[in-house]
Each structure stands twice: as C-alpha cells, then as structure tokens.
Amino acid sequence: MENESKWRQTEPADFFLELILAMAEDGKEVPITLNVKGLVISGLVISAGAYNQSFGKGSFKETVLKLKESGQLDFLDSEPEPPKSEVYEYIHLKNAKIYASGQQPIPADGMLWRGRISSIDGYADGMLGVGEPD
After folding, report:
1. Long-range contacts of range 53-58, CB-CB < 8 Å, 24 or more positions apart?
2. Average pLDDT over the chain, rounded to whole?
3. What is the pTM of this model?
C-alpha cells in the first residue's frame, strides 16, 4: 500500500486531521471547527470509545433498555462484535454546536456529534464561541 495512512478515502490523507484523531484516541480532547457540506460545526474531538460511552446515556439508554426488556434486541446477543478498525472513518465531537449565519448556535449547550471524515470540507484549530457584545 503506497499510503500508510489510517484514513479511508480516495484523497491523500490530511496529516493534521489524522494527528488530531490519533490524539483523541489517546484520550485527549482537541478543540476544532469543521466545515461539513456548508455547515459550520464546532466542538471537542473525542475518541470513539468516549463517544460510545457518552451516547449510551440519557434518553438513548432508556430506549435501549425498553427494547431489550421487550426482547427486540435479542439478536444482538448472538452477533459477534465487529472487528476493531484501525482506519479512521468517523470523527466524534462533544459539546458540538452547529452555527448558521445570523443565528445562535444549536443546541445552545452543545451535543454529541459524529460525522464521516470523508464529508469534511475544511477545518480550523479551536472552537467557535458566541460572547456578549462589548
């Protein structure tokens, strides 16, 4: 394989974005602002494991527990776990906010967000913030 990158896409790997993802997988939270298909999304890059742990809390957890109690998720017990991929396909953010021109960020208090790396059009170091006017 000519390109030893862990990036699964047809374009050449982006060294800095791949470095940010590796830092996140090592447990560091990295502030970033992404441009994805015309949206501006800002938050902290986190590992896939941290995303999965956080995503399993709250209303999603309640829904899963209800489905499990009703037997609707029994098929999951017999399925083997998928192999752990060494290739970065997704980026995971916490405290993510989506910004639109002239609008307050949504949601105001941030959220968990997951997106395909191949959908990222651009990125900037750091997070956006909306402060009070001087």
Report:
1. 54/94, 54/112, 55/112
2. 80
3. 0.73
